[in-house]
Amino acid sequence: MTDVDTPPADDSPPGSSRMSKTTRNVVEWAAIVLVALLVAFLVKTFLFQPFYIPSESMVPSLEVNDRVLVNKLSYKLHDVNRGDIVVFERPPGPVASTIKDLIKRAVGLPGETIEGRPDGVYVNGKKIPEPYLADGATTGTFGPITLEDDQVFVMGDNRTFSQDSRIFGPIDEDLIEGRAFFRFWPLGSLDLL
Fold first, then answer.
1. H or E element at residue 106
2. Active-site hit among 57, 61, 74, 162
3. Predicted confidence (pLDDT) per residue in 4-51, tens digit
4. Which residues are CB-contacts of 175 (< 8 A; sequence separation ≥ 6)?
5. Which of 2, 35, 75, 122 pairs with 133 at a CA distance of 20 to 30 A?
6. Is 74 a catalytic residue?
7. Which of 55, 61, 74, 104 is catalytic?
8. Secondary structure of residue 96 in the 3-state scheme
9. What pTM value is reported for the model?
């Protein structure tokens, strides 16, 4: 006759099942953390990245210390559009700075001729609307400049306090890291750009 309530004999040393369970938990948590870090790295590298606004060059659209989310995939799927707020690597030029990335608005697109006149910005001889500028903002005179097929002319919305393509010239499209599309800080200023 067999006793069904008798547990099978355990030949393992005392505490070894607890050790293996603890080891398994540590390995599982390490794997979860590793996968989370890998996903975060991939998202930041290829999809979205937060950036902060270090200067007043984009006022009134963006204030100093605002935080924005940048879509890094956007320009792999379509061209830059006039009015997009873009983040790009600082081009080499006469202005030295420790700021690696700049944020400005795309105003002139590849192949266009852009010119600053006393009454505004003209592209291919026609004045463009710029509703994002503060009342009374002036651009100053420059150009005309004809852009190459891979160049974009960028300017800050705060034209008086912006070091932009008027100083360092048009930027190559391959310097553009992505399009700013969402302000997430400060919390009271959440909005789509």
1. strand 101-108
2. 57
3. 555 555 555 555 555 688 887 777 787 787 777 777 666 666 667 889
4. 88, 89, 91
5. 75
6. no
7. 104
8. coil
9. 0.75
Asked if residues 68 and 50 have their Cβ atoms less than 8 Å apart, the reply is yes
Q: Would residue 104 show up in a list of annotated catalytic residues for this protein?
A: yes
Task: Kindly tell me if the per-residue pLDDT of 136 is higher than 90.
Answer: no
Is the backbone of residue 140 left (phi > 0), alpha (psi -120 to 50) or beta?
left
Written as one letter, the residue type at 135 is D
For 103-124, b/e burial (b = at least 16 CB within 10 A) is bbbbbbbeebebbbeeeebbbe
Q: Write the CA distances from 70 to 36, 131, 171, integer angstroms.
A: 20, 22, 18
Q: What is the 3-state secondary structure (H, E, C) of 122-184?
A: EECCEECCCCCCCCCCCCCCEEEEECCCCEEEEECCCHHHCCCHHHHCCEEHHHEEEEEEEEE
Residue 42's identity, in one-letter code, is L
Q: Using DSSP, state whether 52 is helix, strand or coil.
A: strand
pLDDT band per the 50, 70, 90 thresholds, residue 105: very high
